[in-house]
Amino acid sequence: MQDRLPHEKGFHVSWDQLHRDARALAWRLDGHGPDNGNWKAVVAITRGGMAPAMIVARELDIRTVDTISVKSYNHQTQADPKVIKFPDMALVGDGTGVLIVDDLVDTGRTLEVVRAHMPKAHVATVYAKPQGRNQVDSFITEVSQDTWIFFPWDMALQYVQPYRGVD
Ligand SMILES: O=P(O)(O)OC[C@H]1O[C@H](OP(=O)(O)OP(=O)(O)O)[C@H](O)[C@@H]1O
Ligand code: HPA
Ligand SMILES: [Mg+2]
């Protein structure tokens, strides 16, 4: 395991904050689908997109939810993104009316690969970094490129020393 992070800053997101931000994303998307404002399906990019996608689908009452699995990182080191599981392509077609949801965009390489398979889909992430921002149609919060976002599923509550130390 690495002792030091390769990023200068850490942005730690609680479950509560993620819930609020994913809800805000859903409300922003509400009424903007191509079918009288409606979206026909949500496609979550696994695994990080699954929790936000569930919240978006719940808020917008979308029952058709599928997944696309892209593996691009080993811990914090990026490798070539690969699609290792596709959604039902008969359902998603060229992506029209489909909301693709992920937790964040960083370099944008994951979304580049996903967009190539569903070019007309609307891509939404909860968080965005500047390098990948142009790959996203909607997002809620931007952080700087040198920030690593820590998601609640990667963290645990633990004891910390008081600021002035202990006797
Ligand atoms: O914009 P990029 O630089 O491509 O990075 C963003 C992607 O990286 C992370 O997923 P990861 O591939 O680590 O898999 P996970 O969702 O299963 O954690 C994150 O959840 C995004 O999907
Ligand atoms: O900042 C990040 N946090 C978690 N996963 C990630 N995958 C790419 N960038 C990040
Ligand atoms: Mg991911």
Automatic annotation (TrEMBL):
GO molecular function, one term: guanine phosphoribosyltransferase activity
Pathway: Purine metabolism; GMP biosynthesis via salvage pathway; GMP from guanine: step 1/1; Purine metabolism; XMP biosynthesis via salvage pathway; XMP from xanthine: step 1/1
GO cellular component terms, semicolon-separated: plasma membrane
Reactions this protein catalyses: GMP + diphosphate = guanine + 5-phospho-alpha-D-ribose 1-diphosphate; IMP + diphosphate = hypoxanthine + 5-phospho-alpha-D-ribose 1-diphosphate; XMP + diphosphate = xanthine + 5-phospho-alpha-D-ribose 1-diphosphate
Coiled coil: none
Superkingdom: Bacteria
Compartment(s): Cell membrane
Membrane topology: Peripheral membrane protein
EC number: 2.4.2.22
Residues binding 5-phospho-alpha-D-ribose 1-diphosphate: R47, G48, D102, D103, L104, V105, D106, T107, G108, R109, T110
Function: Purine salvage pathway enzyme that catalyzes the transfer of the ribosyl-5-phosphate group from 5-phospho-alpha-D-ribose 1-diphosphate (PRPP) to the N9 position of the 6-oxopurines guanine and xanthine to form the corresponding ribonucleotides GMP (guanosine 5'-monophosphate) and XMP (xanthosine 5'-monophosphate), with the release of PPi. To a lesser extent, also acts on hypoxanthine.
HAMAP family: XGPRT
Protein name: Xanthine-guanine phosphoribosyltransferase
Encoding gene (name): gpt
